[in-house]
């Protein structure tokens, strides 16, 4: 289903992954919901897509789509009061039980069989937490009332390795089956959200129905290397994406690796295992949005050249059918943290449950800027409240841009900075 050229452009909200960093998105939503145009009114997003923590946040907004302020308040409440015990079992017995299973698998698995350990922690509390706090029946109402075009939640299939996007929305929505991506119609449930947020290795796989059968799924960010793609395929022409990575921090770390100053370079020490695990988590959670935006800019240049050539060569198509999906304009606006979330996590790592902190300390101590692993797993209200406030401040700093983007159906005026790119993209490529 392609958007009607006569209808107003559909705006999508794209919420990326990030474990405990997802609290940042709650702060951003809270500030945007306070705009007079949206206060106690419907959310300004026809399409909502999310993966991992973004799936939790997206489902919360979709479930109260008719009252954006209420959904934003719900998000802030969930994240601000979050404790590790809401996400996984933190008692010593549970940790020892899992450690014992792991020891049997590694030491005697070749003799007596393995497969006793499903994950590093028991995340069974998270299901109850989501079930109590996400009124998902509101999604159906939002679709029936016409305010919500589609909610799309992505999880990774552990057998095929593909990104499965589960879509609930209006009849006739486009579905796809590409080499690495599959879209299925579904009635979004807590299980779908739980599967999308199942951090690999840390949380166990989640079973979901897939047509006439069932399969096991994990975190949606693992294979969703183009996080903007589901929203574009569902018909979005404007994208508000909320990331969870500080760009300045990423550039700073790169400069330290590229430095030609011998004295400065000598400060880089051999990374401990915790830092390596954090880099792996970054590759899963944080890097995809930046790469997809770069791709969007390249497609902009490509389509601009294509339109220039098309205007010079008059070739009537008649009834011919083009061999690609239609091209259209997609305008993104991205909000990302202004401060390094890893550093914030480092200052609060002592608030982790003792059992988990003990395991983390065994992996080595990275420098503050590389404490990414902690930032993904620090499900603690002191940390998440800091991130909510950071998201609120960052959105407030750019609230005029955001308001113009969401309220003005025309393209942004020239002069907006590079954070807002008027991009033309090819939906068939993304």
Describe the model.
- This protein has 18 helices and 10 strands.
- With 430 residues, the protein is α/β, with parallel strands linked by helices.
- Strands 1, 2, 3, 4, 5, 6, 7, 8, 9 and 10 form a 10-stranded mixed β-sheet that branches.
- α1 packs across α17 and α6 crosses α8.
- The protein is globular, with a radius of gyration of 22 Å.
What brief labels describe this structure?
single chain; 430 residues; 18 helices; 14% strand
Mean of the pLDDT scores? Answer: 81
- Beta strand count: 10
Helix run count: 18
Assign a percent range to the helix content. Answer: 40-55%
Uncertain segments: 411-430
Strand content: 5-15%
What does the largest sheet look like? 10 strands, mixed
Rg over CA atoms: 22 Å
Distance between the termini: 16 Å
Summarize the helix and strand pattern as letters: EHEHHHHHHEEEHEEHEHHHHEHHHHHE
Helix/strand-derived category reads alpha/beta
Shape label: globular
